Amino acid sequence: MIGQVAQRYADALYNLAAREGALDAVASDVSELAKAIGGEKASHFLLNPRVDRDKREAALLGTLSGAHALTTKFARLCFSKGREAVLLELGEAFRLRQMAEDGVVEGVVESARPLDHGEIASLATNLSARLGKTVQLDNRIDASLIGGVRVTVGSSMLDLTVQGRLDDLRERLMRVPLTAGR
Predict the structure, then answer these.
(1) How many beta carbons lie within 10 A of that of residue 39, not counting itself?
(2) Which pLDDT score, from 0 to 100, does residue 181 have?
(3) Pairwise CA distance, residues 55 & 58, whole Å
């Protein structure tokens, strides 16, 4: 889950990079930065209040040598505003913004058994047509499912599991008015 502050900062960086024609370079820098500070030790150092802020900033800027000027200025801005934590979420927030601009959404398809590439592609194609966006699905195994699939994309869920269908049938039967015997 990405925080609102991190998403706003990522959106601002994305918009500025797009306006300056440096989107590919900044996206590459952000990806490399996310890898560099993604480990527990690096993230702990970045946020450690016992280490002088200038020392932490210098260490981070060292990892950004050769990066686009916008990326470097952005990192300096985060430090000057006391928002170093934003840098930890920047990679994912920037990636999600890029996907949104490209009309791509991610989803999860849960199944009792692993689905093959063709089954996942078929589901993704059908959902893409339904949602008007390109859907990328990740298959997760849920051994508690009897059969069928449950697909979650954003805040929407499509339950095509056997249990889901039985629950739906039970609910519809409960809504049918009972009549006196004939």
Answers:
(1) 10
(2) 64
(3) 5
Please determine, for residue 149, whether its predicted confidence score (pLDDT) is greater than 80. yes
Task: Please write the tens of the pLDDT for every residue from 4-38.
Answer: 999 999 999 999 999 999 999 999 999 999 999 98
Q: Which helix (DSSP H) or strand (DSSP E) does residue 71 occupy? A: helix 69-80
Name all domains of the chain by residue range, CATH numbers in brackets.
4-100 (1.10.520), 103-175 (3.40.30)
pLDDT tens column, 29-83: 999 999 999 888 988 998 988 999 999 999 999 989 899 999 999 999 999 999 9
Closest CA to 116 of 124, 128, 106, 127: 124
Count of residues making up the chain: 182
- 139: exposed, middle or buried (Cβ count in 10 Å: 0-12, 13-18, 19+): middle
For residues 58 and 114, give the distance between their C-alpha atoms in angstroms, rounded to a whole number: 46
SS3 label, residue 65: coil
- State the amino acid at position 108 in one-letter form: V
